[in-house]
Each structure stands twice: as structure tokens, then as C-alpha cells.
Task: structure prediction
Amino acid sequence: MRSDAGAPAGESVAVRYTRVISVVVVVIVVVWHFGYDSLILVRGWSRYEPAWAALTSWLVLSVVQLVGSVLLLRTALRGRLAPFLTSVALLAGIVAVATYPRGAAISDLSWAANTVGWFGVLLLMQRPMRELVALLACTVAMTMAALGAHGELDTREAWSRLIAQSYTTAGIQLAFVLLTRELHHAARLTTGAARAQADRMARQAAEETRHAERRRRYRYLRDRIAPLLQDLAEGRAHPGDEGVRRSSAIEAARLRRLFAETEDAAHPLLHELRACADVAERRDVDVTFVCYGELPDVPVAARRQLTDGPLLALASAKTVARVTVVVTAGEVTVSVVADAAAPAAPHAIRFAGTSVLFDEKENLLWLESRWRVPRPPSTSASSTITRW
Result:
């Protein structure tokens, strides 16, 4: 049973479960050793032979318990550290058992074997099961050796007491670890099932989003492009007419922007403006593009707001156009200056957040769109100039 160190805030059920079990084990061992063992040691102090050896064993086990608890809660019981601490605890337990008086290997004075078993649960619960089984076998062997050294293994009563004591100590400890591992496995399965369901829901949401986007594009083509093509096909619109050419250039720019919205680009806003500028360049319009500042993450709706007006100026430009993108701490501005005809100016006023000026003397159309950034960008603005 392993926990994932450094799990995020939305950590899995398995990781949270592992931490809870670690806390439970630490509490059990602390209460058992500093409560139950201390009480037994104080009550039978005069009967241990020698008493200072029993006290030393208790102190060594206390140090091992404190170190092991800290490492377990920090998920740092890895490598050879856990077996080393377990070996120290086992040696301390053997010394403590050796201090029992005759006939006290299974009595109110015996505490070490059961305690070492719980220390094994603390130190080895995240390691292969065979290590814990080996330690529990050693704790049973400790008690058996003490009984044999005092000549108490020659009766059925002694064997019955040994079996009962082993079942209530090592058996419970082994069952505890097995149960925690099974529950942890179930938690991992639950986490996997929840993750798979979340993935399915995410894929479904992505499919629905793509489907909605396709329908939006279809509606756009049906409502804007199809009537224009139908008028051209049926002769109601003539390709030589200036208004028809301007309308065709505008719809072509919008169509290019529509395709550019789905393409991967470092700066989607610049990419979509470039797509709009391509339509003008195909008509031999000299387009200059200048960008000042570090662009923030601009959502699709805001990008449409910023490009709806400027693309009209680009589509209406005759020979030259200049696109300028300025990014400040709280605003993104896109402006276009083009030698466009006067009729393009009223056509652009309908876009919200767009300012339009027309210089009749120079026959220049100036169009500017602004979008306020919801929050200041995390990085400081820098200036870059790009020319096309």
C-alpha cells in the first residue's frame, strides 16, 4: 500500500485513505506503548530481572516508535530504513522478554512480543507482506523461547496458552494489515472507476462542444455565405460590382477567421487577424502588422469582438492597410488604418466596442476595437514588433 507524495488538492480517495490509515496506526502504537506498556512496566518493576534492562528496552522502543511515526506520516519509510528500525525493535523486544521472571512469558508482566508486533504494523505496512509475516513469526518465537527456557512447553495447557496468545496478538495484527490492504485496493479501484467516468464525461463534453461548434459554423455558412453565392449564381449580384466585391471580401475574411479559430497557435488573436489579412493580401493590398505588448489569454468570444470590426477595414482596403495590436495592463486594442471607401465606415459602426473614423480628405478609414482584460496579466508587458 503506497501513498502518492505531493498529491494535489483534489487528491484521490486512495491517497486520502492511506493517510487516514497511517494516522490510525500511529495512534494505536502510541496509546499501546506509552499507555499499556508503561503501566505494565511500572506495576511489575520489581519483578523484572534486571529492571534496568526492561526500562532500556522500553526507551529504545519509544525512540523507534517516534521516528517511525514521523517517517510514516511523511511517507518516508522507504528503502532500508524500515527494515533497520524493525530490527532494532525486534532486538529490544528480545532483551525485554529475557527480563521476564520464571513463568511470566504469558502473564500480566509480558508486554514486549505484542508491542513489537504492532511496531511491525507501523514500520512494515507499506512493504511486502512477507516481511511483516516474518516479524510476527519472530514475536511468537520469542514467547516460545521464553517458555522453553523455563521448561513450560511440556504440557498441553502451555501450548494452548501459546496458541491463544499468538492468535490474539500476531493474528489480529496480521488481519489488521490484510484488511487495510484490501480496503486500500478497493479504494484504488473506486478511484480508477471515478477517473474513468470523469474521462468519459470530459470526452462527451468535448464531443458536444465540437458538435455545437460545427452547427455554429454551418449556421454561419447558411445565413451569410449561402445567400451571397446564390445571388451570384442566379445573376442577382454581379462580380464586377464594387459592393459585391466588398461583401465577398468581408465574408471571405470571416470564413478564414472561422477556420483559424480551431487551429493551434501560440497567439490565437494574432493568428486570426493574420488570416483576415491574408484575404486582403490576395487582392494585392500591402498589409503591415505591428504588435506591442504580451498578449494575455483572450477567449474566443472576445477575439471575435476584437476582430469583427477590423476585418471590415481589411476587406475594404484598396492598396494599403496597417494593423496595430496594443496590449496594456488591463486592455487589448486592435486598430486598422486602411485606404478604404467611405461606404465601409457606416457598415462597421454596428459592432459593439468599435470606434470608426473616416478621413474624407485622405480617403482613410480608421477602425479600433477594445477589450478589457478581466484581470491584469501575470507577466509584465514587453514590446515586440512584427512586420508582414
The chain has ten helices and five strands. Residues 50 and 172 are 31 Å apart (CA to CA). The first strand starts at residue 286 and ends at 292. The radius of gyration is 40 Å.
